[in-house]
Amino acid sequence: MACGEFELIERFFKNRQKQRSDVVLPIGDDCALLAPRAEQLLAVSTDTLVSGVHFFPDIVPHALGYKSLAINLSDLAAMGATPRWVSLALTLPSVDEAWLEQFSAGFFEAADYYDIQLIGGDVTKGPLSITLTVQGEVTKGQQLTRRGANVGDWICVTGNLGDSALGLQSLAGKVDLPPGDRDSVIKKHYYPIPRLLAGQALKGVATAAIDLSDGLASDVAHIAAASGCKAIIDIDSLPLSNALLANTTPEQGVKLGLGGGEDYELCFTVPPAALGTLDTLLAHTGASFHCVGQIHNGSGVEFVQNNKTAVIDIKGFSHF
Ligand code: ADP
Ligand code: MG
Questions:
Q1: Residue-level pLDDT at 1
Q2: What is the DSSP string of 27-51?
Q3: pTM here?
């Protein structure tokens, strides 16, 4: 950006947060310098949000700032990692100060709440897009991955499924919802809660975990593939909110719950003996959980409804 790049960084992104003690050199030099702890693994994840692809161009900038960080934090949650540092590559069509004011307020609201420090980034001119790289730490050996599920494990999810997708439909004008339901599903779409505490509580208990970005049907397939087994999902057990149930047919509700995407809940597997401990383990995390299926021999994902195999035409979101 020819004009105003440094002023922009200075004004909207630098010195907006309390300095973490593990940030040796913050924003302002060629690199940030960070001091990871001994015996910790760095968990690193990048996501890009492109205007017109991942969000409507007229999205409330506060929501965009919050959500772009929250969905990256969700990846850290799925690994059982604790958030530490984030960098932000911002491509802007122009410098709109009111927009940047709100975007950065939303971003730092999430950053301060989840104790992650912005340590650098880049600003370029072009079609609006946001790329974040988050880094967290997880003690060696305690990380959650997609690959440890065993035959017999229960498959669980936090929260409810499908609300975010219903929120998106509402924003797109495809459904007309009563105001209370509309607000609650749009909030779920714009302000997802990264399940960081749940991810940390599941360390040592869950055998595999993933965060639900594309939809349960497609995301649980990643656990099955990485773990070399089959996931069977019980349609009747899907946790669907009252807002979703009240405004969709049963078939629509199931489709949104399985394939709507952007739930940013966790899906995890636990051995049968650990199922009874989840209530206590997750009690302090603010996350409800439901058991939605079980791991079997084989490969891929199957669905059952009323104890019978169900054929459901569902695909998670895929760009290509
Ligand atoms: P360089 O040209 O050496 O890559 P820049 O001029 O792009 O450095 O950035 C100057 C400093 O500002 C760097 O420390 C960089 O990490 C930081 N920075 C740039 N853009 C952002 C941003 N959007 N948010 C936070 N820090 C940023
Ligand atoms: Mg640069």
A1: 44
A2: BTBSS-EE-PPTTEEEEEEEEEEEB
A3: 0.95
